[in-house]
Design a protein that fits this description.
Elements (H helix, E strand, L loop, with lengths): L1 H62 L9 H18 L3 H18 L10 H10 L5 H19 L9
């Protein structure tokens, strides 16, 4: 009879150990899921922060623009036409479209009398990385949007002029 109780206690101990092991495994699984969720949220917040910084850099670059000379109507129309072609080409070859947008933005800036675009515009870094095939589609899409803002701002008649 005594051995019977010892067997029950050993079986009960084994059941407790198995339950503890399963509980720890579930908790560890939840911890991993929580870590992955936190990592995803962190990366999203970091991406949003980078986007805001890029937008501020772009705003500073455009705000520093001083109109030195207006665009001739034929240059303005040619640049608008090129911009529309670049936008259409983005669906087929995003990296090439971003590189062409960089070239066009630089050209329009020079036509306006600027020395060119600042190198610290985030879209320019993406354009460079895109030429080497190292930019993601999301980065390329963001860069083409930034170039759109730059080009449209430079082509606009009412371009902001500071320091006047």
């Amino acid at each position: 009879m005594f051995w019977w109780w010892i067997g029950i206690l050993i079986a009960f101990g084994v059941v407790l150990l198995v339950a503890a092991a399963l509980s720890t495994g579930r908790r560890q699984g939840r911890t991993e899921a929580t870590r992955e969720l936190n990592r995803t949220q962190f990366l999203r917040a970091l991406s949003d922060l980078r986007q805001r910084r890029a937008e501020r850099a772009l705003e500073r670059a455009l705000a520093d623009d001083v109109v030195r000379r207006p665009l001739r109507p034929e240059d303005k129309e040619r640049c608008r036409r090129e911009w529309r072609e670049i936008q259409a080409r983005f669906a087929v070859d995003p990296a090439r479209a971003v590189a062409e947008a960089d070239r066009l933005a630089e050209e329009v800036a020079r036509l306006r009398g600027r020395e060119g675009l600042p190198l610290n515009i985030p879209a320019r870094r993406v354009a460079f990385r895109g030429k080497r095939g190292q930019a993601s589609l999301r980065e390329l899409r963001s860069a083409i949007e930034q170039y759109g803002t730059i080009i449209n701002e430079l082509l606009a008649n009412g371009l902001r002029a500071t320091g006047s």
